[in-house]
Structure formats: structure tokens, C-alpha cells
Amino acid sequence: MADVKEEFKVKGEELLKKVNELIKEGNVRKVTIKGKEGNEILSFPLTLGVIGAVIAPILAAVGAVAALVTECTISVERK
């Protein structure tokens, strides 16, 4: 089965909430955050068995990005 790609446009303050939702879904393989102009800001893989201790630094980085951008696009690869 091929990977499915989706994109979501969100405002900076919604970024962390949306990434948290995607992580909890559990079928996401990779998340890429792109700036308003389409440039890649942050990209990270998610694998089965990812636990809280590994997710915490990722979420901290996403929170920092959210503070810097007004609009961005979240690109998601699903299984």
C-alpha cells in the first residue's frame, strides 16, 4: 500500500495543537512543517513505538516554530 500525503494550512497558534492531533492518530509516518513561502522549516519522522520521552523535544521544537510563524503548512505522510 502506498503512502498517502496530506497538507493542512494552519495559523502559528494552531500548529502545536494540530501536530499533537496527528501524532495521536498513530498512522502518521512523517511530518513536515513548511513556511508561508513553501520552504521547509522542520521535518521529523514518526515510527511505531514512539514514546513520550522522544516526542517531548519534537513538540518543543514545533512550539518554537509556532512562535515564529504566522501561517504555515503541515505536510503529512500516512501509511
Molecular structure report:
With 79 residues, the protein is of the alpha+beta class. The protein has one domain (4-78): Dna Ligase, domain 1 (2-Layer Sandwich), CATH 3.30.1490. Helices cover 39% and strands 37% of the residues. It contains two helices and four strands. Strands 1-4-2-3 form a four-stranded antiparallel beta sheet, covered by helices on one side. Helix 1 (12-25) runs antiparallel to helix 2 (52-68).
Summarize the structure.
This protein has 2 helices and 4 strands, in the order E-H-E-E-H-E. It is an alpha+beta fold. The protein is globular.
Topology:
Elements: E1 4-11, H1 12-25, E2 28-34, E3 40-45, H2 52-68, E4 71-78
Antiparallel strand pairs: 1-4, 2-3, 2-4
Strand residue content: 35-45%
Which percent range fits the helix content?
25-40%
The counted number of beta strands is 4
Distance between termini? 8 Å
- What is the CATH C level class, in words? Alpha Beta
Structural category is alpha+beta
- The average pLDDT value, as a whole number, equals 86
Number of helical elements: 2
Query: Which blocks of ≥5 consecutive residues have pLDDT under 50?
Result: none
Strand order of the largest sheet: 1-4-2-3
Order of helices and strands: EHEEHE
The fold-level CATH name is: Dna Ligase, domain 1
Shape assignment = globular
Main sheet properties: 4 strands, antiparallel
The rounded Rg comes to: 12 Å
